[in-house]
Design a protein that fits this description.
six-stranded parallel beta sheet; 44% helix; 14% strand; binds uridine-5'-diphosphate-glucuronic acid; single chain; Rossmann fold; 17 helices; alpha/beta; 431 residues
């Protein structure tokens, strides 16, 4: 079976690599000629550890091809994965225009049986729409099946997650389609769930929303920990030893960001509101997350009096380590607020860059941590890049004007930082 992947972003590029790595012949299709040109040279257009090397390996072996030619690509492949983006519209609903375009392209150019599989995160019921869009675009009738096969990889860990998934979810009403997909995934050692398309779509949303809830619970608990002078990291360790809870996604911080949790929680909440079965827990999750970064900023403001003309060093911009993705990054909100309050902001991130937006022009972007710390009244750590954990603060403290450290990721040891003279505050980990 030859596989076509439509969309070569995080999910598309990783999926293409995974199938090539499993021995299949794969083609990636994208409308963006620049991305395709880079990929043809085995180069990625985003930062994802390990992915570029594997893509380059399969480009060299000829197992992975890239194209912008829709007609030839669609006509030449029987199995087609849709991996395009589904961003939020201003009203919070998912924007399905790229899914629709991909479906219509498939309908228009198909020349025989196709199995069309949606990997993008799509609202519940989208498979039915995909089917209708394909049918409406057909120039002559051809048989096809649709299936939902959501992706569960994390940015920054895409290679590891995609090569060793913890489950494969296949949503289809057609036994032949399920068989074909099981064949594609035959080399993977993990449980498979064969279910209806709607169930598969909901499993994806429900998983992301649950993880966002888990994080948010810890974020809210961290505020209580501050009152009791209890360390939230220790509470998380104690809780995580219960296998029913598990140790992951209990890390309190500045709140969840990225291109998935904020968008997917909102989409689920909006869907539920429309159907008048409100998801009240998730409504609160969104609200707590919206205010989480202000919790740390308030601590900094209280310490400094106000931010006007204060030099603030921001360490980390990406929404999480090992990615250059800044979508919904808490650091962006913090920088925005600091600029509004007339602070002088100096920023260091090992990989991520600020958007070319006029509102960020006042930020001094630094290529070294030391430059960002120069004459600082306070440091705010926003992303837990592992390299930040290796910094020698005893040596670095000479660059600062005042020794104030606000740790948005609870990365530092409070006692150690205080021991070398810092006023240190985290999020529920100050003790
Ligand atoms: C998330 C899911 O984890 C993936 O399973 C899913 O496939 C993906 O969304 C998607 O829908 O495409 P991702 O957004 O890449 O992956 O990153 P996560 O590692 O889940 O982190 C999301 C946010 O939660 C980040 O801002 C991170 O800093 C925050 N987080 C995570 C915490 O604040 N505490 C934690 O303990 C864990």
């Amino acid at each position: 079976m030859n596989i076509l992947i439509i969309g070569t972003g995080y999910v598309g590029a990783t999926t293409a690599m995974v199938f090539a790595e499993s021995g299949w012949q794969v083609t990636g299709l994208d409308v963006d000629a620049g991305k395709i040109e880079r990929l043809r040279q085995g180069r990625l257009h985003f930062h994802e550890p390990g992915l570029e090397d594997l893509i380059a390996k399969h480009v060299s072996s000829g197992r992975l091809l890239f194209t912008t030619d829709k007609e030839t690509a669609i006509a030449g492949h029987e199995v087609i994965f849709i991996c395009v983006g589904t961003p939020s519209q201003p009203d919070g609903n998912a924007d399905l225009r790229y899914i629709r375009q991909a479906s219509e392209d498939i309908g228009h150019w198909m020349n025989g049986y196709k199995l069309v599989v949606t990997k993008s995160t799509v609202p519940i019921g989208t498979q039915e729409q995909v089917k209708a869009w394909i049918e409406a675009a057909q120039r002559q009738p051809h048989l096809f099946d649709v299936a939902s096969n959501p992706e569960f990889l994390r940015e920054g860990k895409a290679v590891e997650d995609a090569l060793r998934p913890d489950r494969i979810v296949i949503g289809t009403d057609n036994a032949k389609a399920a068989e074909q997909l099981l064949t594609l995934y035959q080399s993977f050692q993990c449980p498979r769930i064969i279910t209806t398309p709607r169930t598969a779509e909901l499993i994806k949303y429900a998983s992301n929303a649950f993880l966002a809830t888990k994080i948010t619970y810890m974020n809210e608990l961290a505020r209580l920990c501050d009152e009791f002078e209890v360390n939230v990291n220790e509470v998380a360790t104690g809780m995580g030893l219960d296998p029913r809870i598990g140790p992951s996604f209990l890390q309190a911080g500045l709140g969840y960001g990225g291109s998935c949790f904020p968008k997917d929680v909102l989409e689920l909440v909006m869907t539920a509101r429309k159907l008048q079965v409100p998801l009240r827990i998730l409504e609160e999750v969104m609200e707590v997350n919206r205010t989480q970064f202000t919790y740390l900023l308030d601590k900094a403001r209280t310490r400094l009096g106000d931010f006007a003309n204060k030099n603030i060093a921001i360490l980390g911009l990406a929404f999480k380590p090992d990615t250059n993705d800044i979508r919904e990054a808490p650091a962006l909100r913090i920088i925005h607020e600091l600029l509004l309050e007339q602070a002088n902001v100096r920023l260091f991130d090992p990989v991520a860059t600020l958007p070319a937006h006029a509102s960020y022009q006042a930020v001094t972007v630094c290529s070294l941590v030391e430059e960002a710390l120069h004459n600082a009244d306070a440091v705010i750590l926003c992303t837990e890049w592992p390299a930040f954990g290796q910094l020698d603060w005893e040596n670095l403290k000479g660059h600062l004007k005042q020794l104030n450290f606000f740790d948005g990721r609870n990365m530092m040891d409070a006692r150690l930082m205080r021991g070398i003279g810092f006023y240190y505050q985290g999020i529920g980990n100050d003790y």
